[in-house]
Amino acid sequence: MTPAQRTPRQEMIDIIARIAGEDGDYPTIIPSLSIHRHSSPARPNCAAYKPSLAIIVQGAKRVVLGEETLIYGASDYLLTSIDLPVLSQVSVASPQEPYLSMVFQIDTGRIPALLETIGDGPAKSAASPRGMTVSKLTPDLEDAALRVLRLLDRPADIAALLPLLEQEILYRLLIGPHGARLRQMTTAESQPHQVGRAVAWLKEHYSRPLRIDDLASRVSMSVSSLHHHFKAITAMSPLQYQKQLRLQEARRLMLEERLDAGDAGHQVGYDSQAQFSREYARHFGEPPMRDIGRVRRSLVGRLGSEPEMLSEA
């Protein structure tokens, strides 16, 4: 196939496969862009998703948000409009056709200025209240994403062209099926914006005891309204969200800082070691030390040595 005959998706596959020559998660010279390659399905992995556009060009992935599972594959995109703790799993991949994807971080701070330009239209009604949704990739959005990838081979063009492409991607998302959700997340005093403030507070103070009355007052919502809208957007209650933050941070502390289970649980806010072990096993499928031992053995077997830091899928 000649370069002129390649489809946009094939060109995206070629660029990502060339840069990510081996399995792994790769930052790029564009700070907001990372690319990912995996040659086989993987176990579920905890991850903290930030506002972002994730596009799979080959393979498929499962993302578990609360009790909800989203599945997306080639030519789909995953839009995340608020910080969310999830379990993610590469579900379709092989050495012949590895899983390949790109993740583009969204600067939500740029949305209000763009909205002043485009006004209220032509956004569609919110298709879902969720802060994470899957949609089919449109030709216009695919074209903008491809032009971002092409910049990896043209570093001299990044400073001039990347801001324009970032704005185009935001514009395509804002007029797409979930654009209303992005708009609401940045509209002061809207309920999604208030939930976003609650999420920010929980992320900063996850180890503290959670008092729902205080959190609701802090974000100017009633307790019932906070519960309703928080769960509609995150698929979790505030307490469940805090629990996932705690368990993910405890796992990171054991893997990267080599804390034992007792110290890690205590540091993230658990007073009871038994409760920590029970909730950890329910969330990750194994008790803490068995899970950490398995992950370390897997890393040593795959990389030949255990890395100082565990990259996030």
TrEMBL record:
Mind telling me which InterPro entries this protein's record contains? Homeodomain-like_sf, HTH_AraC, Tscrpt_reg_HTH_AraC_N
Superkingdom assignment:
Bacteria
The record, for SMART domains, names: HTH_ARAC (SM00342)
Q: Which PROSITE patterns match?
A: HTH_ARAC_FAMILY_2
**Domain HTH araC/xylS-type, residue spans:** 196-294
Record keywords, A-Z: Transcription, Transcription regulation
Q: Does the keyword Transferase apply?
A: no
Name under which the protein is recorded = AraC family transcriptional regulator
Per the UniProt entry, what species is this protein from, by scientific name?
Sinorhizobium numidicum
